[in-house]
Amino acid sequence: MGSFTLPELPYSKDALAPHISSETLDFHWGKHHLTYVTNLNNLTKGTENESKTLEEIIAKSSGPLFDNAAQHWNHTFYWHSLSPNGGGEADGAVKDAIIAKWGSFDTFKQEFTKRATGAFGSGWTWLVKQTDGTLAIVTTSNAETPLTTDAKPILVVDVWEHAYYIDYRNARAKYLDAFWNVVNWDFANKNLAQS
């Protein structure tokens, strides 16, 4: 594989404003995510991991190598979980699966927001497909990711403070309100179809 690179954002840095500012993306994508990529390259250079995929490294590593590889993967997935054309209620197969599990989109949204708001410290809140085919809401700490489980990630929100501090200071609940205006249901439907 060679060296890992910071992926381009799937939209311009100002495309998510006013919900997520270009200044936040400057720091979150342009500095935080870049640091994980740089660290990962430094940790893999000249080792057997240099030729492995990101997913292979995540599956078989721990400590700083895992942290930086998983954060690179998690952030890339997060950028695609957002869209300037997103927001509103889910549609398609994701909506059907949400209603099958939670009874209504509003109930799901409340539960997802509650889990994300209540996540202690730094981490991620995921919508995943379980092995029985149903959806679930999973919160992971730090760099943890569903890739190390049997669950398939469908959508994620980053609840590390650097994801929202510039725009919302420590008001995670306000950031989550904003997230629902840019959530990318097309991406979620694509992931559900491939899971």
Order of helices and strands: HHHHHEEEHHH
Number of domains: 2
Overall geometric form: globular
Low-confidence stretches: none
Query: Sheet with the most strands?
Result: 3 strands, antiparallel
User: Would you identify the CATH architecture of the largest domain?
Assistant: 3-Layer(bab) Sandwich
Average pLDDT works out at 97
Strand portion: 5-15%
Number of helices: 8
CATH topology of the largest domain: minor pseudopilin epsh fold
- CATH C-level label of the largest domain: Alpha Beta
Catalytic activity: 2 superoxide + 2 H(+) = H2O2 + O2
Pfam families: Sod_Fe_C (PF02777), Sod_Fe_N (PF00081)
Domain Manganese/iron superoxide dismutase N-terminal: 3-83
Protein name: Superoxide dismutase
Keywords:
3-stranded antiparallel β-sheet; 8 helices; 3 strands; minor pseudopilin epsh fold; globular; 195 residues; mainly alpha; Helix Hairpins
Description:
The chain has helices at residues 22-44, 54-60, 63-80, 92-102, 105-118, 165-168, 172-182, 185-194, and strands at residues 123-129, 135-141, 152-158. With 195 residues, the chain is mostly helical. The chain has 2 domains: 22-81, Fe,Mn superoxide dismutase (SOD) domain (Helix Hairpins), CATH 1.10.287; 92-194, Iron/manganese superoxide dismutase, C-terminal domain (minor pseudopilin epsh fold), CATH 3.55.40.20. Helix 1 (22-44) packs antiparallel against helix 3 (63-80) and helix 2 packs across helix 3 (63-80). The longest helix is centred in the N-terminal third of the chain and has 23 residues, at 22-44. The chain is globular, with a radius of gyration of 16 Å.
